[in-house]
Amino acid sequence: MEAELLGPPEDLKGKDVLEIGAGAAQCSRWLTAQGARPVALDISHRQLQHALRIGGAFPLVCADAGALPFADASFDLACSAYGALPFVADPVQVLREVRRVLRPGGRFVFSVTHPIRWAFPDEPGPAGLSVSASYFDRTPYVEQDEEGRAVYVEHHRTVGDRVRDVVAAGFRLVDLVEPEWPAWNSSEWGGWSPLRGNLIPGTAIFVCVRD
Fold first, then answer.
1. Architecture of domain 9-114+156-186+202-209
2. Per residue, what are the HEC states of 71-118?
3. Is the pLDDT at 42 greater than 80, yes or no?
4. What are the residue boundaries of the structural domains of the chain, listed by start?
5. How wide is the angle at C-alpha 99 spanned by C-alphas 77 and 177, nearest 5°?
6. How many CA atoms lie within 13 A of 130 on its CB side?
7. Which residues contact 150 (CB under 8 A, 6 or more apart)?
């Protein structure tokens, strides 16, 4: 939001924006406050129920990001904050669908956990600073229930993979942002801390345009 990667907030007024993998639709709430017309989409009915409980004057759509239920050129902008793309085996299909529903000149901004994170253990202390796995190992991370069914799957793509995916889908990549750890943030959560955040990036943000 502060980075204005979708454009200056004052320019968002009246824009049709698709939030993909919206979860509880935090981005759509912010976009509404700027005068935009967002649509929040997620494949999880439970997540959208949570979004509904929180409230917001925008549509909620339960659908697969790889088969968007919208006509061509329906949106001015699209965004995704850690949604959809890390969890699909075929990210190019999702990217092609996003490009399809964007109007010419439309921008898609999406963030994922920075690919370098896969080489380091999920530990905020000094142990989290030593490489423990191959950055080039693209084996998905899978969590299973007691019956052996996958309940959580996340796919690793290198930075190069992500760039090639964007280009293969027909987008033009205009920026790749790797936010630095802010000096004011002294918090620790999950595998992240000021110690770790000051040395390796936690997030990669891709800014793409449909020409």
1. 3-Layer(aba) Sandwich (3.40)
2. CCCCEEEEEEECCCHHHCCCHHHHHHHHHHHEEEEEEEEEEEECHHHH
3. yes
4. 9-114+156-186+202-209
5. 65
6. 4
7. 142, 143, 144
pLDDT in tens, 70-127: 999 999 999 999 999 999 999 999 999 999 999 999 999 999 999 999 999 999 999 9
Chain centre distance of CA 154:
13
Is the pTM higher than 0.85? The answer reads yes
- Residue 50 clears pLDDT 80, i.e. is over it: yes
The residues, ordered by sequence, that sit 6+ positions from 154 with a Cβ below 8 Å of its Cβ are 86, 87, 140, 141
Dist CA 210 CA 190 (whole Å): 35
Q: How far apart are CA 84 and CA 42, in angstroms?
A: 8
DSSP state of 55: -
